[in-house]
Design brief:
The complex is a heterotrimer.
Chain A lengths: L1 E10 L2 E11 L4 E5 L6 H9 L5 E9 L2 E2 L5 H7 L1 E4 L6 E5 H15 L7 H14 L5 H4 L1 E2 L5 H15 L3 E5 L7 H14 L5 E6 L3 H5 L4 E6 L2 E6 L2 H9 L6
Helix pairs in contact in A: 2-3, 6-7
Chain B lengths: L4 H10 L12 E3 L6 H10 L4 H16 L24 E3 L14 H9 L19 E7 L2 E5 L2 H6 L3 E4 H7 L1 H7 L10 H9 L4 E5 L8 E7 L10 E6 L4 E9 L6 E4 L2 E6 L4 E9 L10 E12 L5 E8 L4 E4 L2 E4 L5 E10 L4 E10 L5 E11 L3 E10 L7 E11 L4 E10 L5 E10 L2 H9 L4 H17 L4 H15 L5
Parallel strand pairs in B: 3-7, 6-8, 7-9, 8-11, 9-12, 10-13, 11-13, 12-14, 13-15, 13-16, 14-17, 15-18, 16-18, 17-19, 18-20, 19-21, 20-22, 21-23
Antiparallel strand pairs in B: 1-2, 3-4, 5-6
Chain C lengths: L2 H8 L15 H8 L16 H5 L4 E2 L17 E6 L2 E2 L12 E5 H7 L2 H7 L7 E2 L5 E2 L1 H12 L3 E5 L9 E7 L4 E3 L2 E6 L4 E10 L5 E10 L4 E9 L5 E10 L4 E8 L2 E10 L5 E10 L4 E10 L5 E10 L4 E10 L7 E10 L5 E10 L5 E9 L3 H9 L4 H14 L6 H15 L5
Parallel strand pairs in C: 1-9, 2-8, 7-10, 8-11, 9-12, 10-12, 11-13, 12-14, 13-15, 14-16, 15-17, 16-18, 17-19, 18-20, 19-21, 20-22, 21-23
Antiparallel strand pairs in C: 2-3, 4-7, 5-6
Helix pairs in contact in C: 2-6, 7-8, 8-9
The chains are: A alpha/beta, B alpha/beta, C alpha/beta.
Chain lengths: 245, 491, 429
Amino acid sequence: MLKISNLSVSVENKLIINNLDLEIGEGKKVAVMGPNGSGKSTLSNVISGKPGYNIKEGSIKFEDTDILKINPDERAAMGIFMAFQYPVEIPGIANSSFLRTAINSIRKKNNIEPVNTRIFLEELNQIASKLGLDKSFLSRDMNEGFSGGEKKKNEILQLLLLKPKLCVLDEIDSGLDIDSLKVISKGISEYSNKKNSMLIITHYQRLLDHVIPDEVHIFNKGKIVESGDHDLVKILEEKGYKEFS
Amino acid sequence: MRTSDETTKLVEEASKYKYGFTTNIEQDLAPKGLNKNIVRFISKKKNEPKWLLNWRLKAFDTLEKRKDNFPTWANLKYNKIDLQDIHYYAAPKSEDDKPKSLEEVDPELLRAYNKLGIPLKEQEFLAGVKNSHKVAVDAVFDSVSVATTFKSELSKLGIIFCSFSEAVANHPDLVKKYLGTVIPVNDNYFSTLNSAVFSDGSFVYIPPGVRCPMELSTYFRINAANTGQFERTLIIADKNSYVSYLEGCTAPMRDENQLHAAVVELVALENAEIKYSTVQNWYPGDKNGKGGIYNFVTKRGICQEAHSKISWTQVETGSAVTWKYPSVILKGDHSSGEFYSVALSHNCQQADTGTKMIHIGKNTSSRIVSKGISAGRGQQTYRGLVSILPKADNTKNFTQCDSLLIGNDCGAHTVPYIDVRNKSSDVAHEASTSKISEEQLFFCLQRGITEEDATALIVNGFCREVFKSLPMEFAVEAKKLLELSLEGAVG
Amino acid sequence: MLLNDYLNKLKKTNLKELNKPWLSNELLNKELLDNIFPDNNAEEWKNFNVNAFIKQKWNLLISQDSPNLKKENILFKNLIVFNNGVLDKKLTEINTDDKVKIHSLQEYYNKDKTIVDKIYCNSKKYSEDRISGIIDNKTTSLLSLNSLLNQGVVIEVAADSKVGNEICLYNQISANETIINPYILLVANKNSEVNFLDLTSYIEENNWTNVFYEVYLEKNSKVRMSNFSLNQSMNLNTSSYNFHLEKEALLEFASINKGNSKKDIRVFLNGENSKVDIKGMLLSRLIENSDIFCKVTHNAFSSDSKQDWRMISADTSKTSLNGKIKIMKGAKNSSGNFFSKALLLNDKAKALSKPELEIFEDDVSCSHGSSFGELEKDKVFYLQSRGFSKKEAIEMLVSAFISELNFSDNNLSDNLKNEVEKMFIGKDL
């Protein structure tokens, strides 16, 4: 589904990602773990197309299309979703109307009719209640005044609604209490299937106890320094990142 | 306001300015120029009584004596308008034998209104809402009021909603009692001009204790070339009454600048409430600043008696030049005034707009929320005055004016005057200026929303507090207008 | 000679021949020769009318002696004394190992024209460019007048030097019915650091002080300046303080303004990362009119400004504050903040405020806030219930109100306290 080849990225002349190769197959859950400042967030931003990064060399292919020159909104329409580490607040815009705009924009780009309002609202309510969110949550302004946990749940709510092919989860577990973590993990696990893929970027193992990855890569200084399966998580937990620098 | 299919087609044709079409109607046009004879001509055309003619002539004399002209203190740069090069009266030909009912209205005219999406024929605004949401419409075409709907239903309640000319003929006492009391003839250059040459407008009287069951609405449209539009609106809400009034405006695309100088006076008596909403969409001129309406409007309301309330809401997206300060004089104790404004200047548009809240009575309160958006080379100024006079004990004012800049060729200016002469008052003013943050934009893009849509979305969010105070269908229209006006602002 | 006679005589003079840098500009000369002085038609001068008092009898300064000053009463290690705006070399004493030098303006200009030329290259910046497009030069006439009637003193702080002790600029006003025109150019050279206390002491009454200060902050210099006056109330004051900041320069300006006075403060942030912090107090009592115009112009990338003002009006007096933040195109990443709070102590007192923003760049953050109000009745009651009299309670709350400003200079805080106490003398609250 996603193929990153020989990718080097710099910000303000500082090399952040260094000759990275990474492949995520269809139906696979891939975890990238690394210490702070290892370049994990840069990786997710580059996949989703955030401006401000200088791609020195290499390519990122999504379903065999090179996406590096494609606008972020078009990447989203192709099925790439990034859950933000720090979701953005948009004052004055109700959550539900933001979501409807998003879903219809994506549908429009894929030549699909706008969603029927009633069906949309039904589905939205269903997802919200699955995540333990009150109905009023949907009419509140987009992320404004939300707690850390609510913001992260909102990211998952959007993921479940937009149904992307590739989910890039950037530190979705940071700043979450244990109950919220369970709700979010459940949401992710239920969504995961043979047709979609997950790139789970995290610092800690705790999310990976709930969402079991197929592959685990340890990331440091812009490179993959170690790869393995779920067992690698336990080794990492015992030894710490220092062992893998 | 749903636009008909025909309109949709026209939108495509006119591409940028949705309402930029002219209507082919036989015009009854006064010769160009401003003099006593023209004033007499207008008055005669309208069969006005002598007192009104004299009132007009006095205004004309005042105008002659005025040393000032177009205001120079505002943040506006524009070509001088030659007052002698304007038609002061333009009426559809059928005016001579005025239509008795809608059926008799010139079909071409009705077609024009349909193009505007105005439901001149009585119809529901929102699908599926039966009898619960009606809007009575008075339509002013160039200078003349052509049709007023729902008249009979309203008159059962004692509500008077008619053209200004009709009010002069049928309710002279009311007109005489209130005309020029809120905005004196010599208030400013344009109010003097308007008093001399005003052509028509709307008149509303809500009797004591009556809550007007529907929105009252006026549509203004400038059609004839080289025509000034000088309408005059007077709304009186008697004791314990309520009315919500909507005003919409459009004008065709023309290369030259056209002058619009209206006067709107509101009077709220004891415990009465007037809500006045405007969506101003006059032709803004083309991308390079050619053409467009010069909008010099004087709007003021007075909370004459205790516990009365006046609320102005405006969405200003049109006009090449906007000069407008809807104000409230808070005379009655415990009265309150509100001003909610969204103003957008794109391309070469300039807007200098704001409000005045004059606190005279005790325990009066006012609230100002202004959202200015500048894009392209647009210049946007909020200019406001909060004045607390010595006897206005325990008054409260809160002002918030925020500016949003899109691009760096535009400008945003905030000029609030605060004058406090009573120690027990509580006045607070906040202002900020910002741009659309890159983080917000990227977040929207990542969710699949295009940059243009994302901008519109964020701008709408920025304006929401104001849109919230608009009647629902107007809010929808306002949102759409904003999006339309912002086209090409990004990228 | 009287001022009016002088102004009439001036019309026959070619101002350029006077060789004053400020007067080299034709435009300014014209305003002066036509006797155009700011009146209440000038937006920023709405509440102050020079034309109303310029026709009064004002003597021009003749005597420069100052028998009244007892130096031992002034406890400053570094003291620069001016008598009626003229440098008093005998009483001046600076102990800074040559880090601070004093020149006459002419001397300094002959030595190095760079900074003077830079300051005066564009005299338009001293006039007000209305957003309506009208340019108001009226204010500049006062500056021109000042420049004509005073030789001017330059105080220069050497590059890379840090002046440890505060330098007191002591202005003593001992004339009578006289127009006095102090002119000081302060130059803080590269990487220097200095603190000034600008103190004006009025010994006599009925004078008009027309002050013109230019402060030039070179790259990476730090200047702190505090400003207040003693016994000003029976005198009239118009003053103009102008600050020019180069790259990385930092200015802290704190001032107490009172009496019948009109002060224009202009700060030009011309260098990247320059920063200004202004704290000001406006006090007015009796029938005084205390008026401030304070404008910060951001001309450079990443420049930063902060203004914090408090106003108190008593009796039938009036305070006016016109604060303006202007961000020019190109000054990206800049931030401008303005905040003011006003308190009226009497029903006949007035306060006016006009916090303006003018923004021509989208990548900036600006905010302003103003509030007016009365002391909270609940708080007064609370203090009364703890045994304070109503007057004591109010005084306490007023002192809390002013202490929010948190002046870093003790001289300033002490003076403010005294001045506020004066407002309550003999008052029945």
